[in-house]
Amino acid sequence: MSEPRPAERDPGRFYEDFRVGQRIVHPLGRTVYAADNAWFSLLTQNQNPIHVDRHFSERTPFGKPLVNSCLTLALATGQSVNDLTRNVFANLGWEEVRLPAPLFEGDTLTSESEVLAVRASGSRPEAGIVTVRTTGRKQDGTVVISFRRTFLIWKRAHAPSSGQGNSGRENG
Fold first, then answer.
1. How far apart are CA 132 and CA 113, in angstroms?
2. Which of 27, 33, 31 is nearest to 109 (CA)?
3. Which listed residue, of 34, 71, 110, 124, carries a Cα 20 to 30 Å from 100's Cα?
4. Structural domain boundaries of the chain?
5. What does the pLDDT look like over 89-147, one tens digit per residue?
6. Distance CA 15, CA 132 (A)
7. DSSP state letters, 11-25
């Protein structure tokens, strides 16, 4: 008697799977804890006390520690990876990063992306270029970050095989 095969991992999106105007809600939210904020700030050598000194930040107009804005950017980008860039060839850039409202320790960040542009690469025929706008919101719906990200992504027929069904092709 044979055991059932484990479900294959979703191969992720390839260049051919993106369409201008497509909206993708990234399903995983992330609550930011004080330890996340302190460790990220210390790891990146950001010594601004508004992120790591509760007593100092209580005397600011915010009245409590702000989540490091680079952590907010990293989380919103990370939330999008499974849905957008699992098959990335390379990230090409982040632009128009906006932080219209603060994110605080204890807030939960969720994000979604809209595809703004899709085009073939002139220098890499095995890949294409996609630009998205990602928007991150905290639990009450307030937008806390938005940015444009452009990435070079494999075309399905050219993607390297991960050995786990990641390329959309047979592995052997």
1. 6
2. 31
3. 34
4. 15-157
5. 999 999 999 999 999 999 999 999 999 999 999 999 999 999 999 999 999 999 999 99
6. 13
7. ----GGG--TT-EEE
| Per-residue DSSP letter, 132 | E
**Residues 6+ away with beta carbon under 8 Å from 7:** none
pLDDT digits (tens, 9 = 90+) for 142-172: 999 999 999 999 999 898 875 544 444 433 3
pLDDT band of residue 8 (cuts 50, 70, 90) is low
Instruction: Give pTM, 2 decimals.
Output: 0.86
CATH topology of domain 15-157: Thiol Ester Dehydrase; Chain A (3.10.129)
Residues 107, 110: Cα–Cα separation, whole Å: 10
Residues 6+ away with beta carbon under 8 Å from 136 = 72, 75, 76, 79, 103, 109, 110, 111, 143, 144, 145, 146
